[in-house]
Amino acid sequence: MGCASHPRYRAKPITDKPSKTTAAPKYRSSQIGYTSYYAHKFHGRPTASGEIYDMNGLSAAHRELPLGTIIRVTHLSNGKTVVVKVNDRGPFVDGRILDLSLGAAKKLDMVAEGVARVKIEIVKSVD
What we know:
Barwin-like endoglucanases, 32% strand, globular
């Protein structure tokens, strides 16, 4: 018998199917933090998605969620909710996770306070 350059028996059987690996989700399905809103200064200007910002519409800016993602925002102090589309990037203020349009802030009854603690949940992802 000659010397073999590789083992005669494999430790793992050969299969045609690639092994399944479970990748960690790229984005959390929910997040809790502070939100504010933006309005007049940006009204009518293009957002990161290319849409024109409508301060009276129902939209949001998030740093990481894909543009076009639909999220539910719940004001944790009063329980009011609104569903918005992420069409912009931001906020650019430390400690905040979201910037809402004025229309969305009105639905949450947070305009007077300016900043509110919220929970965001992905309703529809574009990934």
